[in-house]
Every structure is written in structure tokens, then in C-alpha cells.
Amino acid sequence: MANSCIAVLARNEIQLTQAILHGWSRGLKMSIVDEDVYSRTMQLAKAMFFTRRYAEKCINMQKEKPLSLYKGLWCHMSKEGTDLTLSFYSQKIMENDSTIKHYSKRLKTKKFEAYIKKKISLDIAPLLKQLHTIRLSGLAETSEILMVKSPLNKFMVRHMECTYVIKFKIKWINPMNNFPLLIIYYAWLLKEFAYRGVVFNKKKKNFKLLKEAVGRMDRSSLRDDAVIDNSKFKATDILMFQLYANIDNNRDRGFKKAKEKGYHTAVIPKLKININRNIFNILSSYFLIPFYIYFKLLASRQGHLFFYILFFHKKCFPIELLMNLYDIKCFFSLQPWNGIEETIVLNKYGAKTAVLHASDLTDFEECPDYAFVAHNIYYTWGDIFYDYHSRTYSVDKQISIGCPYKEDYNRAVSNIEKIKAINGIKNFKERKKTTVFFDSGFGQGNIQFAEDFFLHYLNIIDEFCKENRDVNVLLKPKNEKNAVNYELSISAGKLAYYKKTWNRLLSHSNFSHLDPLKYSGEEIMALADVCINMGMNSPATVALICGKNALYFDNTGNIHHPFAKRYKNVLVFEDKELFFEQIRNILDGKFNCKDVIDENQMRQYDAFSDDKAIGRLIGSLYELTLTK
């Protein structure tokens, strides 16, 4: 026991490196209770040749009951994380925020504060997960916990001990001096200059829009070039970029598609450095300022912020190179949870950023994933998606445009016979009513939906097939890797149980498993008489917006989603019998979701009753590109 511990770590590489070196130098056996932190730790340890063997022998993943199986805890933690971020910033940073003010003044922005809060929240989230896991599993009484003695870690331990009346056995290790981190940063920066190469005084190319190719080129709704209408925006008006080279198959495929379709493209990691008059500002920002900030933070005893500051410079540098090569009017993204660095750099060059969410954001109230964002324009389907998290936002303007999926849904309804004929669905009988079950992302570790919940969901579908042989039952996967089955997503320990359940499902003559690459979500909704959701998330919400009957099956204890609060055992169910009864009521014409969701509430989710959301988006973006 004396030579073993549980390491509780934030997600930043500095803390991970400190823990690895501490354990390696002492031959310490370390267990980690969070899968993501474990994966990051192992990746980093194996990257250092002298700790590779230590990692393989002495660092292990200790699996405990997933937090998502504690009913309601995931919802509680989401708001707890946001509140803790605001509290830590108020107590530990605001009283001595001269560095924050320096960046805000230098960059002429109010959004740098949001960046720091976002980085803090991203460290708090895994710390919360790990400390809650240790608390609930009983490990606090039996295990020594290894933590870096940082202000945030001490703050988190104090919060957990006071709030949950528990005492952790903490082995604190002193934080590293930040100077080696500064050296590593400069080594990276010099490597960037050496690797990229230079061009001299290259004339900037002009584009109205900048958009990352994220692999949506083949989809109708919100495809990468959805705003190209050949009127306000032509193909020559948009620059498609690849943020990371060869790191994500879907993104890589999307970028190749953009090139094939003839769009102007840029690979961010391969951009040349444009030596022009602006190069001196770039050199000052990325060579001189970090050195100055190192001593400033040292003097103010705020060294724990230095990693966030250097990460900001590292993330901004490629964007700065892009803006030194191209004249961009607006950066448009479907990732509202990201993009603070992009916003700050683009604003520096007089450009704007605009985002549109692609999914239901009301599953959690003030969730850290959605909190602390900073954009110029935030497009939403309806006001509720913004209002649910706006306390933490640094957004200049919010604009509701309506749900962007309705146009393709209505098109699918008009072409329903053609859709059936083109692909064909095994076991599908046109004379029968149709129920579509949508899955969601799940996993073994501390994520929102546990693997056990998904397996339970499959059992629910199996029982529904058995009890309703007069109904077509379709299962629509979210992820294309599950196009044939779910074996790639199931852990080894649960694989036998999954296969048994899956074989039972396949034996039903009324069951069909759909390939997500053949059918879009809107097409499947058009086929359905009722849509079923695994948990409180997007497909059922979109179906309701489109006028379809839809229900949610959720046993995780979600109390944040407005429908979970208002429509328990009406639209949202965890009791199987009540759930099946409501599906039959819909199929038999005894119940319609429109009877309980009034027009005012629907307009909160979908600001307009028509299907012109994309047209409004195009018009608003076009106006944005006309102004500086």
C-alpha cells in the first residue's frame, strides 16, 4: 500500500508530466479512475522513452462504477462544475488579475477572461469526476491520493471535503517551475518556423467566409458548404480549411471532398509564414510576450495560469499565420463550444466569428461543455438554447433563425416513396406502423451514457419487438462505425452479453438495423410514426420540432432538460410499461405530442414555424461580411 496510490489529475499536460515523473522516480504504482485522464497519461508517458516501461508496468486503469449509473449525479456535476469555475475565478484570480487585464488591453477584447474560465472549467470537470468516483467507491478510506499542489487542486479538495463531509488522504507533490515549460514552448515555436518555411510579402487572398471541413460534405443538413447558395455566397467566396492533418478520418475525408468539389482549401499545419510588415507584430506576440508574462506571473504568484497562457499562444499562432495570408470577413463554425482563440485573433484583424449549434443544448443546464464560450454572433434554433447557458457567455449578439433540419425533413416527406425504393429496408412492411429508435454515444468510463444504459436500451427494443409484431421497428445508429453492429463499441467484458441480446434482436422479423451512411436522420424521421430517443438529446427534439410524435427513454435521472421537468411519463419515461403504453397510444391514434406542447413552448425551441432557417442564416452571414 505504501508504494501505491490513486493519481487525481487535471487534463493539462503539465500535471500529467509531474505525476509521471514523480511516480517513475520512486517506482510508484499509480492507479487512475478516469478513462480519459488514464489515456492521456499513458500517451504522454509512452512518448518519453525513459518512462515508457514504467507506464506499462506501473500505471493502470482502476475501473469503478460509472458515475452516470448514479441517478442524477451527472446532471448535478454539470452545474457543480460551472459554479466551481466561477467561484474559483472570483476567489483566486479576480483579486490579482493584472495579467488578464494586460491581454484584454493588448488584444482589445473582453473575451480573454472567457478563455481563462474555459480552461479552468476543462480542468475542473475531470477533477470532479475522479474525486466523486473515489468518494462513492469507498476508496477515500483505503487509498492514498496523489495530487499536484496547485491552487485549483487544493480548491477542489476543500470543496469536496466540505460539501460531502469526507476526508481524502492526499499526498501533495510540489508543482514544477514554469521555466522548463517556457523552454519547451520556444523549442516548439522555433520548430514551427523551421518546418513551415516562409514566403515574402505574399499578397493576401480575399474570402468572405472561413469554414473548417469537418466531414459533413455528403450530408444535406448543415453540410460543410450549406451556405453556398450561388447568390449571396458562391463557391469562390469560401475558404475550407483543415485544422489538423491526418488526425481524424471523418475530417480528413471531408477535407478531401472539399478539394474534389473545387473549393479553395488551406491546411493549417502546412501554412507558410508570410514575411511582411505584420511579421514584427507576430514576433512580438509570440516571442517576446510569453517571456514577459513568465516573470509577471512569477512576481504576482499566479504561476498556475502560465500553462493556460502558453496554450493560448500555441493555439493562436497558426490562426495568426492564416490571417497573415488571407483576408477573411467571417469565420463560421458548427462548434459553439470551441473557438475563443479564433474569435480573439480574427477580431484583431477586423474579422468576425459566427457559430450555429447542431444539436439540442438543453440536456444539461450550464454544462461546462457548453459554458464559457466567446463569439461575435451566436445563431440558435430558438432562444432557449442560448438562454440555458447565457450566464457564462461572452457573446456580442444572439440571433434565432429556426431549426435548420426542417427543410430536409419536409423534402424527405415529399420524397418518401423514392427514399424507400432507393435503399430498401430489411423486414420493412409498408402496411405496418413504424417506430424508430435512435441510439446515442455511450462508453465504459465516466461519460454521460454508460455502456450498461445502452445494453438496457437494446433490451427495451428487443421486448418491444416481441410485444409489437405488427409494428416495423427500426434502429438508427448515430455513429457510422456501428453501421453493421455495435461490436466495435462494446467492452470485452460485456461483449458476450451484447452478442446474445443482438442476436435476439436480429431474430425478430419486424426489426431492422439501419446503416447511418445510407439514411439521414431526417429521412428516417419521415418514415416513422413515432421516434424514440436514448436519453435526453437531439433526435427526439428535432422530430418534435418537425411535427413528429417523439418520446424520450431516460433512466439516468436527468432533471435539467425542460421536457424532463415538465413531461415526465408523458414524453419522458424510465418505466418500461408506461413507455410501451404511450408508444401504443401514439400508434393507435389515442395520443399526439402536439396536444401537450403548446405553440409558445415550441417557438422557444424553433423560433419560426417555416423551414427557412438556412436562408435566414445565409442572409445574416452575408450582412456580416459587408461590415467591418
Query: Could you describe the largest sheet, including whether it forms a barrel?
Result: 7 strands, parallel
Number of strands: 20
> What's the CATH architecture name of one domain?
3-Layer(aba) Sandwich
User: Portion of residues in helices?
Assistant: 40-55%
CATH topology of one domain: Rossmann fold
Which segments are poorly predicted (pLDDT under 50) over 5 or more consecutive residues?
A: none
Strand order of the largest sheet: 9-8-7-11-12-13-14
| End-to-end Cα distance | 63 Å
Give the class-level CATH name of one domain: Alpha Beta
Overall spatial form? globular
Structure annotation, total helices: 24
Content of β-strand: 15-25%
CATH superfamily caption of one domain: Glycogen Phosphorylase B
Mean pLDDT: 93
The assigned structural class equals: alpha/beta
Radius of gyration: 26 Å
Tell me what you see in this structure.
The longest helix has 26 residues. The mean pLDDT is 93. The chain has 628 residues and is of the alpha/beta class. Helix content is 46%, strand content 15%. Among the domains are: 126 residues, Rossmann fold (3-Layer(aba) Sandwich); 81 residues, no CATH class; 192 residues, Rossmann fold (3-Layer(aba) Sandwich), CATH 3.40.50. The termini are far apart. The chain has 24 helices and 20 strands. It has a seven-stranded parallel sheet with strand order 9-8-7-11-12-13-14, sandwiched between helices. The chain has a six-stranded parallel sheet with strand order 17-16-15-18-19-20, sandwiched between helices. The chain has a five-stranded parallel sheet with strand order 3-2-1-4-5.
